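Run DUF676 domain-containing protein through structure prediction, thanks.
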Amino acid sequence: MPHHQPYPLLLMFHPHHHHHLLLLPTLVSLSLLVHCGGRTFSGINSGQRHQGLRAQAMTTPTHGKSIPGKGNSNDEPDHIVVLVHGILASTSDWTYAEAELKRRIGKNFLIYASSSNTFTKTFAGIDGAGKRLADEVMQVVKKRRSLKRISFVAHSLGGLITRYAIAVLYSPDAYSRDQSCDPGNGSKENSERTSFSKGGLIAGLEPVNFITLATPHLGVRGKGQLPFLLGVPILEKLAAPIAPFVVGRTGSQLFLTDGKPNRPPLLLRMASDSEDAKFLSALGAFRCRTIYANVSYDHMVGWRTSSIRRATELGKPPRRSLDGYRHVVDVEYCPPVPSDGPQFPPKAVKAKEAAQNAPNTQNTVEYHQIMEEEIIRGLQQLGWKKVDVSFHSAFWPFFAHNNIHVKNEWLHNAGVGVIAHVADSLRQQASLILTASL
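Sure, done. The structure for DUF676 domain-containing protein is below.
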Protein backbone atom coordinates (compact mmCIF):
# COMPACT_ATOMS: atom_id res chain seq x y z
CA MET A 1 0.00 0.00 0.00
CA PRO A 2 1.54 3.35 -0.95
CA HIS A 3 2.28 5.78 1.84
CA HIS A 4 0.24 8.95 2.07
CA GLN A 5 2.27 12.05 1.39
CA PRO A 6 2.08 15.08 3.66
CA TYR A 7 -0.64 17.54 2.82
CA PRO A 8 0.35 20.66 0.84
CA LEU A 9 0.53 24.10 2.39
CA LEU A 10 -2.90 25.48 3.11
CA LEU A 11 -3.75 29.17 2.81
CA MET A 12 -6.34 29.92 5.42
CA PHE A 13 -7.80 32.76 7.45
CA HIS A 14 -6.70 32.97 11.04
CA PRO A 15 -9.96 32.35 12.95
CA HIS A 16 -9.64 35.49 15.06
CA HIS A 17 -7.82 37.99 12.86
CA HIS A 18 -9.56 38.45 9.55
CA HIS A 19 -7.37 41.27 8.39
CA HIS A 20 -4.55 39.01 7.29
CA LEU A 21 -3.90 35.58 5.88
CA LEU A 22 -1.81 33.00 7.62
CA LEU A 23 0.20 30.47 5.69
CA LEU A 24 0.49 27.29 7.71
CA PRO A 25 1.88 23.88 6.90
CA THR A 26 -0.64 21.32 8.10
CA LEU A 27 1.89 18.54 8.72
CA VAL A 28 -1.02 16.25 9.34
CA SER A 29 0.11 12.79 8.35
CA LEU A 30 1.33 10.62 11.19
CA SER A 31 2.59 8.23 8.54
CA LEU A 32 5.44 10.65 7.82
CA LEU A 33 7.54 8.75 10.32
CA VAL A 34 7.33 5.67 8.13
CA HIS A 35 9.45 7.43 5.52
CA CYS A 36 12.51 7.37 7.79
CA GLY A 37 14.67 4.29 8.05
CA GLY A 38 16.64 2.54 10.73
CA ARG A 39 16.93 -0.61 12.78
CA THR A 40 16.99 -0.96 16.54
CA PHE A 41 19.62 -2.24 18.90
CA SER A 42 18.77 -4.80 21.51
CA GLY A 43 17.42 -3.39 24.74
CA ILE A 44 18.10 -4.62 28.25
CA ASN A 45 16.09 -7.60 29.42
CA SER A 46 16.71 -7.95 33.14
CA GLY A 47 13.42 -7.12 34.89
CA GLN A 48 12.25 -9.32 37.72
CA ARG A 49 8.50 -8.69 37.90
CA HIS A 50 7.37 -10.50 34.76
CA GLN A 51 8.46 -13.63 32.93
CA GLY A 52 7.49 -14.45 29.36
CA LEU A 53 8.48 -15.53 25.89
CA ARG A 54 10.84 -13.36 23.93
CA ALA A 55 9.38 -11.59 20.92
CA GLN A 56 10.12 -13.23 17.62
CA ALA A 57 9.97 -12.00 14.05
CA MET A 58 6.73 -12.14 12.13
CA THR A 59 6.45 -15.31 10.10
CA THR A 60 3.38 -14.72 7.95
CA PRO A 61 2.71 -11.25 6.49
CA THR A 62 -0.96 -10.35 6.07
CA HIS A 63 -0.70 -7.13 4.05
CA GLY A 64 -3.31 -5.43 6.17
CA LYS A 65 -5.98 -8.09 5.76
CA SER A 66 -7.72 -9.67 8.72
CA ILE A 67 -6.74 -13.16 9.74
CA PRO A 68 -9.75 -15.44 10.14
CA GLY A 69 -9.40 -17.76 13.10
CA LYS A 70 -10.21 -21.31 12.03
CA GLY A 71 -10.29 -23.01 15.41
CA ASN A 72 -9.70 -26.75 15.58
CA SER A 73 -11.52 -29.36 13.51
CA ASN A 74 -14.63 -29.07 15.66
CA ASP A 75 -14.65 -25.49 16.91
CA GLU A 76 -14.79 -22.07 15.37
CA PRO A 77 -13.07 -19.20 17.24
CA ASP A 78 -15.08 -18.01 20.23
CA HIS A 79 -13.12 -14.82 21.07
CA ILE A 80 -12.75 -11.87 18.68
CA VAL A 81 -9.91 -9.38 19.12
CA VAL A 82 -10.62 -6.14 17.23
CA LEU A 83 -7.58 -4.08 16.22
CA VAL A 84 -8.25 -0.34 15.78
CA HIS A 85 -5.71 1.98 14.11
CA GLY A 86 -5.12 5.67 14.77
CA ILE A 87 -5.41 8.94 12.83
CA LEU A 88 -4.71 8.91 9.09
CA ALA A 89 -3.89 5.21 9.21
CA SER A 90 -5.24 1.93 7.85
CA THR A 91 -5.36 -1.81 8.47
CA SER A 92 -1.78 -2.08 7.19
CA ASP A 93 -0.66 -0.58 10.52
CA TRP A 94 -1.50 -3.95 12.09
CA THR A 95 0.26 -6.23 9.58
CA TYR A 96 2.91 -7.36 12.07
CA ALA A 97 0.73 -7.35 15.18
CA GLU A 98 -2.05 -9.30 13.46
CA ALA A 99 0.20 -12.16 12.48
CA GLU A 100 2.09 -12.17 15.76
CA LEU A 101 -1.08 -12.21 17.86
CA LYS A 102 -2.49 -15.03 15.76
CA ARG A 103 0.72 -17.01 16.16
CA ARG A 104 0.94 -16.47 19.92
CA ILE A 105 -2.58 -16.64 21.31
CA GLY A 106 -4.02 -19.63 19.49
CA LYS A 107 -6.81 -20.62 17.16
CA ASN A 108 -9.71 -19.89 19.50
CA PHE A 109 -9.20 -16.21 18.69
CA LEU A 110 -10.41 -14.34 15.62
CA ILE A 111 -8.02 -11.43 14.98
CA TYR A 112 -9.89 -8.71 13.10
CA ALA A 113 -8.39 -5.41 11.90
CA SER A 114 -11.01 -2.69 11.61
CA SER A 115 -11.23 -0.94 8.24
CA SER A 116 -14.20 1.42 8.67
CA ASN A 117 -12.18 4.54 9.59
CA THR A 118 -9.19 4.55 7.27
CA PHE A 119 -7.16 7.68 6.53
CA THR A 120 -9.19 10.95 6.43
CA LYS A 121 -12.31 9.27 7.83
CA THR A 122 -10.64 9.81 11.20
CA PHE A 123 -11.18 13.57 10.74
CA ALA A 124 -14.98 13.39 11.04
CA GLY A 125 -14.98 13.25 14.83
CA ILE A 126 -14.41 10.64 17.50
CA ASP A 127 -18.16 10.14 17.76
CA GLY A 128 -18.67 9.66 14.03
CA ALA A 129 -15.76 7.24 13.76
CA GLY A 130 -16.95 5.45 16.91
CA LYS A 131 -20.39 4.84 15.42
CA ARG A 132 -18.84 3.47 12.21
CA LEU A 133 -16.62 1.14 14.24
CA ALA A 134 -19.62 -0.06 16.26
CA ASP A 135 -21.56 -0.83 13.07
CA GLU A 136 -18.58 -2.70 11.64
CA VAL A 137 -18.12 -4.81 14.78
CA MET A 138 -21.83 -5.71 14.85
CA GLN A 139 -21.70 -6.87 11.23
CA VAL A 140 -18.70 -9.10 11.95
CA VAL A 141 -20.25 -10.54 15.11
CA LYS A 142 -23.52 -11.33 13.33
CA LYS A 143 -21.65 -13.37 10.73
CA ARG A 144 -19.73 -15.42 13.30
CA ARG A 145 -22.23 -17.23 15.49
CA SER A 146 -19.47 -19.02 17.40
CA LEU A 147 -18.22 -15.84 19.07
CA LYS A 148 -18.78 -15.53 22.82
CA ARG A 149 -16.16 -12.98 23.94
CA ILE A 150 -14.69 -9.75 22.65
CA SER A 151 -11.50 -7.74 23.23
CA PHE A 152 -10.07 -4.58 21.68
CA VAL A 153 -6.50 -3.46 21.00
CA ALA A 154 -6.32 0.15 19.81
CA HIS A 155 -3.53 2.56 18.91
CA SER A 156 -3.45 6.33 19.43
CA LEU A 157 -6.71 8.06 18.37
CA GLY A 158 -8.12 4.57 17.82
CA GLY A 159 -8.36 4.16 21.59
CA LEU A 160 -10.77 7.09 21.87
CA ILE A 161 -12.75 5.89 18.86
CA THR A 162 -13.00 2.48 20.50
CA ARG A 163 -14.16 3.96 23.81
CA TYR A 164 -17.01 5.64 21.96
CA ALA A 165 -17.83 2.48 20.00
CA ILE A 166 -18.08 0.22 23.04
CA ALA A 167 -20.57 2.62 24.62
CA VAL A 168 -22.73 2.29 21.49
CA LEU A 169 -22.38 -1.51 21.65
CA TYR A 170 -22.97 -1.76 25.41
CA SER A 171 -25.95 -3.48 27.00
CA PRO A 172 -26.30 -3.87 30.79
CA ASP A 173 -26.99 -7.62 30.76
CA ALA A 174 -25.17 -8.97 33.80
CA TYR A 175 -22.93 -12.00 33.83
CA SER A 176 -20.84 -13.63 36.52
CA ARG A 177 -17.30 -12.30 36.81
CA ASP A 178 -15.05 -13.28 39.68
CA GLN A 179 -11.67 -12.86 38.05
CA SER A 180 -9.80 -9.56 38.00
CA CYS A 181 -7.28 -8.05 35.65
CA ASP A 182 -4.42 -8.57 38.07
CA PRO A 183 -4.56 -11.84 40.05
CA GLY A 184 -2.18 -10.41 42.63
CA ASN A 185 -4.59 -7.58 43.40
CA GLY A 186 -7.86 -9.31 42.69
CA SER A 187 -9.26 -9.13 46.21
CA LYS A 188 -8.43 -5.46 46.46
CA GLU A 189 -10.14 -4.70 43.18
CA ASN A 190 -13.23 -6.71 44.09
CA SER A 191 -13.51 -5.00 47.48
CA GLU A 192 -13.42 -1.58 45.83
CA ARG A 193 -15.60 -2.43 42.85
CA THR A 194 -17.74 0.49 41.79
CA SER A 195 -21.16 0.72 40.20
CA PHE A 196 -19.45 1.08 36.82
CA SER A 197 -17.86 -2.38 36.87
CA LYS A 198 -20.72 -4.76 37.46
CA GLY A 199 -20.76 -6.45 34.10
CA GLY A 200 -22.62 -6.05 30.86
CA LEU A 201 -22.17 -7.09 27.25
CA ILE A 202 -20.46 -5.50 24.26
CA ALA A 203 -22.06 -6.36 20.90
CA GLY A 204 -23.86 -9.15 22.77
CA LEU A 205 -20.54 -10.73 23.80
CA GLU A 206 -18.67 -10.96 27.08
CA PRO A 207 -16.06 -8.17 27.16
CA VAL A 208 -12.62 -9.33 28.28
CA ASN A 209 -9.69 -7.03 27.41
CA PHE A 210 -9.70 -3.33 26.58
CA ILE A 211 -6.17 -2.35 25.57
CA THR A 212 -4.86 0.97 24.26
CA LEU A 213 -1.39 1.87 23.02
CA ALA A 214 -0.32 5.54 23.21
CA THR A 215 -3.90 6.88 23.30
CA PRO A 216 -4.55 10.54 24.35
CA HIS A 217 -7.21 9.71 26.95
CA LEU A 218 -7.03 13.22 28.46
CA GLY A 219 -6.91 15.01 25.13
CA VAL A 220 -3.81 16.81 23.91
CA ARG A 221 -1.99 19.74 25.49
CA GLY A 222 1.53 20.97 25.94
CA LYS A 223 4.89 20.55 24.31
CA GLY A 224 5.34 17.32 22.42
CA GLN A 225 1.81 16.04 23.05
CA LEU A 226 -0.03 17.11 19.92
CA PRO A 227 -1.01 14.28 17.60
CA PHE A 228 -0.43 16.01 14.27
CA LEU A 229 2.07 18.84 14.79
CA LEU A 230 5.23 16.73 14.99
CA GLY A 231 6.65 18.87 17.79
CA VAL A 232 6.97 22.06 15.70
CA PRO A 233 6.94 24.90 18.32
CA ILE A 234 5.10 27.55 16.26
CA LEU A 235 2.35 25.10 15.39
CA GLU A 236 2.04 24.02 19.02
CA LYS A 237 1.30 27.64 20.00
CA LEU A 238 -1.34 27.92 17.29
CA ALA A 239 -2.63 24.40 17.78
CA ALA A 240 -6.03 24.98 19.39
CA PRO A 241 -7.35 27.51 16.86
CA ILE A 242 -6.04 25.69 13.78
CA ALA A 243 -6.88 22.15 14.87
CA PRO A 244 -10.43 22.16 13.41
CA PHE A 245 -9.05 23.38 10.08
CA VAL A 246 -6.43 20.64 9.98
CA VAL A 247 -8.24 17.53 11.19
CA GLY A 248 -11.86 18.63 11.31
CA ARG A 249 -14.11 17.88 14.27
CA THR A 250 -11.55 15.44 15.62
CA GLY A 251 -9.14 18.33 16.23
CA SER A 252 -11.53 20.38 18.36
CA GLN A 253 -12.50 17.24 20.31
CA LEU A 254 -8.86 16.42 21.07
CA PHE A 255 -8.31 19.99 22.29
CA LEU A 256 -11.55 19.83 24.31
CA THR A 257 -12.95 22.90 22.54
CA ASP A 258 -15.82 21.18 20.72
CA GLY A 259 -19.42 22.29 21.21
CA LYS A 260 -20.92 25.34 22.86
CA PRO A 261 -19.12 26.94 25.82
CA ASN A 262 -21.74 25.76 28.32
CA ARG A 263 -21.62 22.14 27.13
CA PRO A 264 -18.97 19.71 28.41
CA PRO A 265 -16.50 18.61 25.69
CA LEU A 266 -16.87 15.11 24.33
CA LEU A 267 -13.87 13.63 26.17
CA LEU A 268 -15.28 14.83 29.50
CA ARG A 269 -18.67 13.28 28.71
CA MET A 270 -16.83 10.07 27.79
CA ALA A 271 -15.40 9.91 31.34
CA SER A 272 -18.84 9.22 32.80
CA ASP A 273 -22.24 7.77 32.00
CA SER A 274 -23.59 10.86 30.26
CA GLU A 275 -26.81 11.56 28.40
CA ASP A 276 -24.99 10.49 25.23
CA ALA A 277 -24.20 6.95 26.32
CA LYS A 278 -22.98 4.82 29.24
CA PHE A 279 -19.31 5.33 28.49
CA LEU A 280 -17.96 4.39 31.91
CA SER A 281 -20.24 1.38 32.34
CA ALA A 282 -19.09 0.08 28.96
CA LEU A 283 -15.43 0.37 30.02
CA GLY A 284 -16.23 -1.15 33.40
CA ALA A 285 -17.77 -4.20 31.76
CA PHE A 286 -14.34 -5.41 30.62
CA ARG A 287 -12.45 -7.79 32.86
CA CYS A 288 -9.25 -5.90 32.24
CA ARG A 289 -8.43 -2.37 31.09
CA THR A 290 -4.78 -1.96 30.11
CA ILE A 291 -3.07 1.20 28.89
CA TYR A 292 0.41 1.17 27.33
CA ALA A 293 2.18 4.54 27.42
CA ASN A 294 5.49 5.81 26.06
CA VAL A 295 7.36 7.49 28.90
CA SER A 296 9.45 9.58 26.49
CA TYR A 297 10.26 10.27 22.83
CA ASP A 298 6.59 10.15 21.76
CA HIS A 299 5.96 13.56 20.21
CA MET A 300 2.45 12.63 19.18
CA VAL A 301 0.95 11.52 22.50
CA GLY A 302 2.70 12.19 25.80
CA TRP A 303 3.13 10.02 28.88
CA ARG A 304 0.61 11.91 31.01
CA THR A 305 -2.38 11.67 28.69
CA SER A 306 -1.69 8.11 27.50
CA SER A 307 -1.32 6.76 31.05
CA ILE A 308 -4.18 8.78 32.61
CA ARG A 309 -1.88 10.38 35.16
CA ARG A 310 -1.53 13.83 36.64
CA ALA A 311 1.71 15.68 36.01
CA THR A 312 2.60 15.25 39.70
CA GLU A 313 2.28 11.46 39.32
CA LEU A 314 4.97 11.24 36.65
CA GLY A 315 8.11 10.16 38.45
CA LYS A 316 11.37 9.10 36.91
CA PRO A 317 10.55 6.06 34.77
CA PRO A 318 12.45 2.78 35.08
CA ARG A 319 14.97 2.14 32.31
CA ARG A 320 15.43 -1.64 32.46
CA SER A 321 13.15 -3.87 30.43
CA LEU A 322 11.12 -6.66 31.98
CA ASP A 323 12.35 -10.16 31.21
CA GLY A 324 11.19 -11.25 27.76
CA TYR A 325 9.57 -7.91 26.88
CA ARG A 326 12.14 -5.54 25.48
CA HIS A 327 11.33 -1.85 26.17
CA VAL A 328 8.44 -2.70 28.52
CA VAL A 329 9.81 -1.18 31.74
CA ASP A 330 6.99 -1.24 34.30
CA VAL A 331 3.54 -2.69 35.03
CA GLU A 332 1.33 -1.18 37.72
CA TYR A 333 -2.22 -2.00 38.75
CA CYS A 334 -4.19 1.07 39.85
CA PRO A 335 -7.38 0.14 41.75
CA PRO A 336 -10.58 2.18 41.45
CA VAL A 337 -10.76 5.54 43.21
CA PRO A 338 -14.40 6.20 44.20
CA SER A 339 -15.65 9.73 43.54
CA ASP A 340 -18.77 11.60 42.56
CA GLY A 341 -17.52 11.67 38.99
CA PRO A 342 -16.37 14.46 36.69
CA GLN A 343 -17.93 17.90 36.83
CA PHE A 344 -18.17 20.84 34.42
CA PRO A 345 -18.19 23.78 36.87
CA PRO A 346 -18.93 27.42 35.96
CA LYS A 347 -15.21 28.22 35.92
CA ALA A 348 -14.78 25.55 33.24
CA VAL A 349 -17.53 27.14 31.13
CA LYS A 350 -15.76 30.49 31.34
CA ALA A 351 -12.36 28.94 30.59
CA LYS A 352 -13.73 27.01 27.62
CA GLU A 353 -15.27 30.15 26.15
CA ALA A 354 -11.93 31.95 26.46
CA ALA A 355 -10.07 29.02 24.90
CA GLN A 356 -12.51 29.03 21.99
CA ASN A 357 -12.82 32.76 21.32
CA ALA A 358 -9.47 34.25 22.32
CA PRO A 359 -7.00 31.37 22.59
CA ASN A 360 -3.60 32.09 24.04
CA THR A 361 -1.12 29.99 25.97
CA GLN A 362 -2.36 31.09 29.38
CA ASN A 363 -6.10 30.58 29.07
CA THR A 364 -5.76 27.43 26.97
CA VAL A 365 -3.49 25.80 29.54
CA GLU A 366 -5.79 26.88 32.38
CA TYR A 367 -8.80 25.33 30.66
CA HIS A 368 -7.00 22.07 29.91
CA GLN A 369 -5.78 21.77 33.49
CA ILE A 370 -9.37 21.99 34.75
CA MET A 371 -10.59 19.45 32.20
CA GLU A 372 -7.72 17.00 32.67
CA GLU A 373 -8.39 16.81 36.40
CA GLU A 374 -12.09 16.15 35.83
CA ILE A 375 -11.45 13.50 33.16
CA ILE A 376 -8.96 11.75 35.46
CA ARG A 377 -11.51 11.80 38.30
CA GLY A 378 -14.01 10.15 36.01
CA LEU A 379 -11.76 7.46 34.55
CA GLN A 380 -10.16 6.63 37.91
CA GLN A 381 -13.51 5.28 39.09
CA LEU A 382 -12.36 2.13 37.30
CA GLY A 383 -9.26 0.05 37.89
CA TRP A 384 -6.52 0.20 35.25
CA LYS A 385 -3.40 -1.78 34.52
CA LYS A 386 -0.76 0.73 33.40
CA VAL A 387 2.17 -0.49 31.33
CA ASP A 388 5.05 1.93 30.79
CA VAL A 389 7.20 1.59 27.67
CA SER A 390 10.60 3.23 27.11
CA PHE A 391 12.45 3.25 23.80
CA HIS A 392 15.38 5.24 25.19
CA SER A 393 17.80 2.46 24.19
CA ALA A 394 16.32 1.94 20.71
CA PHE A 395 18.38 3.06 17.71
CA TRP A 396 15.54 5.36 16.62
CA PRO A 397 13.79 6.34 19.88
CA PHE A 398 11.90 9.19 18.21
CA PHE A 399 9.82 6.56 16.40
CA ALA A 400 8.22 5.73 19.76
CA HIS A 401 4.65 6.48 18.67
CA ASN A 402 4.85 3.98 15.82
CA ASN A 403 7.26 1.58 17.53
CA ILE A 404 4.74 0.81 20.28
CA HIS A 405 2.47 -1.10 17.88
CA VAL A 406 5.09 -1.96 15.22
CA LYS A 407 3.44 0.08 12.48
CA ASN A 408 6.02 -1.21 10.01
CA GLU A 409 7.88 -4.45 10.66
CA TRP A 410 11.21 -3.16 9.38
CA LEU A 411 11.18 0.46 10.57
CA HIS A 412 9.48 0.07 13.94
CA ASN A 413 10.62 -3.37 15.13
CA ALA A 414 11.79 -1.96 18.45
CA GLY A 415 8.21 -2.59 19.61
CA VAL A 416 8.10 -6.37 19.12
CA GLY A 417 8.44 -6.84 22.89
CA VAL A 418 5.36 -4.67 23.44
CA ILE A 419 3.28 -6.77 21.05
CA ALA A 420 4.56 -9.90 22.81
CA HIS A 421 3.39 -8.43 26.12
CA VAL A 422 -0.03 -7.64 24.64
CA ALA A 423 -0.32 -11.18 23.29
CA ASP A 424 0.60 -12.78 26.60
CA SER A 425 -1.88 -10.51 28.42
CA LEU A 426 -4.66 -11.66 26.09
CA ARG A 427 -3.65 -15.28 26.58
CA GLN A 428 -3.48 -14.89 30.37
CA GLN A 429 -7.05 -13.58 30.55
CA ALA A 430 -8.23 -16.43 28.32
CA SER A 431 -6.60 -18.90 30.71
CA LEU A 432 -8.28 -17.26 33.72
CA ILE A 433 -11.67 -17.54 32.03
CA LEU A 434 -11.03 -21.18 31.18
CA THR A 435 -9.94 -21.95 34.75
CA ALA A 436 -13.00 -20.19 36.18
CA SER A 437 -15.34 -22.23 33.99
CA LEU A 438 -13.91 -25.59 35.09
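The chain has one domain: 40-437.
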